[in-house]
Specification:
The protein is of the alpha+beta class. It is built from five helices and eleven strands, in the order ααββββββαβαββββα. The longest helix is centred in the N-terminal third of the chain and has 30 residues, at 31-60.
């Protein structure tokens, strides 16, 4: 992280140097040198912006070292096809979220690094993205009301979003969704959700959850 901040500071300083150099050459009517300074400023400015983007996102996301527990979730049925999900994330207040349907899914944003970004020695980072309900019957899925809840606020500088939209501008950044398999909701069912570098994994941790999974699809 310190290395990333240092790179950001240095590249911004270089961009400012090229900017002042361009202005100086422009005042002295040296168009060729002014153009060269402008080109250098654009390149170093782009590198500085990318470094700042990485630094802000690395601070705003969670670090992913290995498979790790990212949340617990427990369901209580309020009426047929409607559940209240109690979402428990370490370090955060529990959230109660209403879900419709028979099944649930959690999604996460994951950022891995490829060359040349691997030279920075950064750990993969993640952010829980959304929790949604789904109907097992395709007819209900098409006609009934869907429920989706955002699990994190949008960052003003988000390397995941930029890398997904403009991959050419973010070499070395591998941004993708890690998604848990749809699992059934049931009254009293409790699950633990872990995250690896490739996917979210949800496991039943009490009898109600194991029974719901065992009967699922029968």
């Amino acid at each position: 992280m310190n290395l990333l901040l240092t790179i950001s500071t240095v590249t911004v300083a270089i961009a400012l140097y090229f900017l002042f150099s361009m202005l100086r050459h422009a005042r002295r009517r040296r168009p060729v040198r002014a153009t060269r300074s402008l080109a250098g400023g654009v390149v170093s400015g782009a590198m500085g912006s990318a470094s700042i983007l990485l630094a802000f996102s690395y601070y705003g996301y969670g670090r992913l070292i290995d498979e790790q527990l990212v949340s617990r979730i427990e369901f209580s049925q309020s009426s047929p096809g409607e559940y209240t999900a109690r979402l428990m994330i370490e370090g955060e207040a529990d959230r109660l979220l209403e879900l419709r349907g028979d099944e649930w899914q959690m999604d996460a944003r994951v950022v891995n690094w490829k060359p040349p970004a691997t030279l920075l020695g950064l750990d993969p980072i993640y952010q829980l993205d959304r929790l949604s309900g789904r109907y097992s019957d395709i007819g209900d899925e098409m006609s009934e009301k869907r429920t989706v809840h955002a699990l994190s606020e949008e960052l003003p500088l988000d390397v995941w979003r930029v890398a997904r939209k403009f991959p050419v501008l973010m070499p070395g950044v591998d941004a993708y969704y890690g998604t848990a398999t749809f699992l059934p909701m049931a009254d009293g069912a409790r699950f633990e959700v872990t995250l690896t570098r490739t996917a979210l994994i949800a496991r039943p941790v009490n009898e109600q959850a194991r029974e719901a999974v065992g009967q699922w699809g029968q």
